[in-house]
Amino acid sequence: MIVCAKCGERSAGTTRFCPGCGSFLDWSGTDAEQQAQAVPTAQPAPVVESARVAAPVGPSGVVTPDPIGPQQSAEPPTPTSPGPPTPTPPTPATQFGAQQPADARPLRAKAQGAEPRVLAEDDLVCVGCRTRNPVTRKLCMGCGRPLDEPEPVKPPWWKWWRGGDRERKPRKPRRRGTLAAIWRWTRRVFLAILAVLAVLYGIIPGFRGSVNKEITEGRKWVERQFGTQLTPVRPTKVTATAATPGHEAVLVADNAKNTYWAAPTGAAEPVLVFTFAQPVDLRRAIVRVGDPAAFQATHRPAKLHLVYSTGKTFDVPLADTPDPQTVEIGGSAGATEVEIHVVEVHRSLQGLDVALSEIELFEQR
């Protein structure tokens, strides 16, 4: 048990703050047992017997009091030998207004063998140190914090992201008027349409393909109008790993629309080889696939794998259409030869050969 020196409130041995006045008990508290031992027991004062002289007895046998009073002892008091005077410690000089050092406040010794308090269901939990306190306390016995202080509410994540703890600047007053209202509604409608288009682009493949096509066409138009000019480049030599009779490899680069190169599809993939007289930087190609006269009579390339003499590669996907297809290519800077591998084909129900009608290449100057 601990007794507060300020208000006299008694607390358990593990309490650090007084429930009555909130004082720090390590400074202002003492154990009840130590306090009881510190108070000395009052002893009765000794009775000193004075030396008295017997009073005279009268003739009638009655004791007559001495009018002078009791006779004191005739022995003089024993003189005390004077000793050397006790030296007085010198008082240090103090400066006016200077703060004097205060005595160190001793800490209370922790109670040994104090039994822990029995917890109850209605205990108050401190929001600072999470100590359980009885309902009768107003201050936490662990840290001295008021128990009626509400627990701070943690702001949501979106306020952290927006900087909710920072002081916000006052908002400007909203403009009023017809033009301002029209602008606000136009902006809201535009944002709503943009959100709907984004959802459609994500869930409808056909819509996504149309948007990608329009973006590609727009980029090409911008490049033609403001970009560097692309010039056609023709190979000096065209060879192939395989070709059917009458449809040699040179027909794929003769700039004619009624001829084509054809090769059988077997274990090895057909390969075209274009050789240039000087290093080139290819950026675009126009490709026509299949037999121009009978489109469904042969297989059509679905994917071309380009291998440059510099060691770099590039893949070109192709659609199954008889119309010319403009594709963007890259990675060929400094190449003098390019191998065109037919790695995937669109299957035909009639023929066994793969046909490629025309390939036109363009480089950047």
From TrEMBL:
It comes from the Bacteria. The keyword Lipoprotein does not apply. Residues 57-115 are annotated as: Disordered. Keywords: Membrane, Transmembrane, Transmembrane helix. The chain crosses the membrane at residues 189-207. Residues 76-92 have a biased composition (Pro residues). This is Zinc-ribbon domain-containing protein.
